[in-house]
From TrEMBL:
Name of protein: Methyltransferase domain-containing protein
Protein's GO biological process: methylation
Sequence ranges assigned to domain Methyltransferase type in this UniProt record: 43-138
Lineage: Archaea, Methanobacteriati, Methanobacteriota, Stenosarchaea group, Methanomicrobia
Keyword set, alphabetical order: Methyltransferase, S-adenosyl-L-methionine, Transferase
GO MF annotation terms: S-adenosylmethionine-dependent methyltransferase activity
Domain of life: Archaea
Pfam families registered for this protein in UniProt: Methyltransf_11
Matches recorded under InterPro entries: Methyltransf_11, SAM-dependent_MTases_sf
Length: 221
């Protein structure tokens, strides 16, 4: 039996979280625009209140999924106010309700870090299933050197906060291993220093693009 978002405590925690998270404004999408032609079908995997979904909907056939109905309701409202449209589906990225080879691209920013190890493996497998040959994933996650690292450990480099939300911190090598069966990987550490109350703190993100092998590449190999 497949677990739905409502039956998993750290998934349902997101609905409580989004009940008080404010709209953060539209997010930049230039890296996606530079690689994905207009009109392609894109999945925003963990779309929240639509920060990426809104600008993406100007150019693509977009679907946003999230485990939080509250977030998706807000996303629909934000898009409607701006006369934009996108499909919205309540779903976890570990069990996607889409046919094989459905999307030319997947956007997944700040989402994989909120899953347990077996869930991250399931998500990677689902991404491979629904992505068209030659399709691209754009992703970003927390890195292990980040100032926010820590909490009540539940797995290696994985913590649960009082909110019930899971936080996992990646290494570049771990993310490369997670998507080892895809094809072309361009994964990078992004480490910056931020000042808080006069003290310097490290922010560590791991981001990049992953391209699924095309049908021609598969035939050659």
């Amino acid at each position: 039996m497949t677990q739905g978002p409502a039956s998993c405590p750290h998934f349902s925690a997101w609905d409580r979280e989004y009940s008080h998270v404010r709209w953060g404004g539209a997010a930049p999408i230039e890296p996606i625009r530079s690689r994905i032609p207009d009109g392609c079908r894109i999945l925003d995997a963990g779309s929240g209140k639509g920060r990426h979904l809104l600008p993406l909907s100007n150019f693509y056939d977009c679907t946003g999924i999230d485990v939080s109905p509250t977030a998706l309701k807000a996303s629909r409202e934000y898009l409607a106010k701006r006369e934009r449209e996108a499909h919205h589906v309540v779903s976890s990225i570990t069990d996607l309700p889409f046919a094989d080879n459905s999307f030319e691209a997947i956007v997944c920013f700040g989402v994989l870090q909120h899953l347990l190890e077996n869930e991250r493996e399931k998500a990677a497998s689902e991404f491979k299933r629904i992505l068209k040959p030659g399709g691209t994933i754009f992703l970003e996650v927390f890195g292990i050197k980040d100032m926010r690292y820590g909490g009540d450990a539940v797995e290696p480099h994985t913590f649960i906060r009082q909110s019930g939300i899971i936080y996992h911190y990646f290494t570049k090598e771990e993310l490369q291993h997670l998507f080892r069966d895809f094809g072309m990987l361009d994964i990078n550490d992004v480490i910056t220093e931020k000042k808080f109350k006069g003290e310097s703190h490290t922010r560590h993100m791991v981001n990049g693009t992953i391209q699924l092998a095309s049908e021609e590449d598969t035939k050659i190999s």
